[in-house]
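1st attempt posting a full record on here, be nice pls
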Amino acid sequence: MERAAVVSGRRSPSVPECNISTSTLAFDQHFTTTAKGILLLAEIVLGMLVWILVGGTDYFHLSALCWVMFVAILCWVLTVFLFLIYLTGTHNRIPQVPWTTLSLCLNCSAAAVYLVTSVVDALSVNQAIRGRHNYNCWAASAFFAFLTTLCYAGSSYLSYWAWKTTQEQ
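the predicted structure (as tokens):
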């Protein structure tokens, strides 16, 4: 096995030059302490609890709970993407995208759809036998769905004010 020898600041010809590129992926360390960051984290955690609690049961026998799963997972995935975009500062690197308008649309849509989903989830609890696994999970998921709705409503409020500020400028 040959070892590369460094002679007077040069590498020996036996070692090929490797062009190594580095990434400049930066994280906004303070984003998670802002109101927007805290609400996004709460939406991610609470939304995940909703779909985990429903997904751990026999939800597929009720079409209403299939809707709950669809909304919970879709909103969760979109929220995770939005969180990563803001956390990495991608929204500053791609100014062509109207991020405040996108956030406003996502949050308002999610709040409205999650409100309907929360009601559907709560009404579906009666389909299970009280005290059983399905009943407990569906009741807990309905509670967390309402909390998630409140988080999306808060994010909608913050997104509206950010959008209004950008529109006035």
